[in-house]
């Protein structure tokens, strides 16, 4: 079973592009953590959803894959995750949504595992 971790990020309106670009650059470094399955972590944005209102103001998204709940907990507790989020997102945050789920073993091949 593979655990999928999805996070949606919303920055406050006054936060500039320089801050957002640094956040994107830094959050991508988390793929090197051993608890990220096969270094599969992708970050994207800004949202291109049409109409944009359907994005509910969320601007960026992260999707990462983990072996199990233990690996996800390790990812969340890592000093690198803490450094990136506390430095590059939390001070500029308006909102965040996190959604984690376990896949059926039969669906793992759809994810490339």
UniProtKB/TrEMBL annotation:
Transmembrane segments: none annotated. It comes from the Eukaryota. PROSITE patterns: S_R_A_B_BARREL. InterPro entries: Dabb, Dimeric_a/b-barrel, HS1/DABB1-like. Residues 3-101 form the Stress-response A/B barrel domain. Pfam families: Dabb. Coiled coil: none annotated. Homodimer. This is Stress-response A/B barrel domain-containing protein.
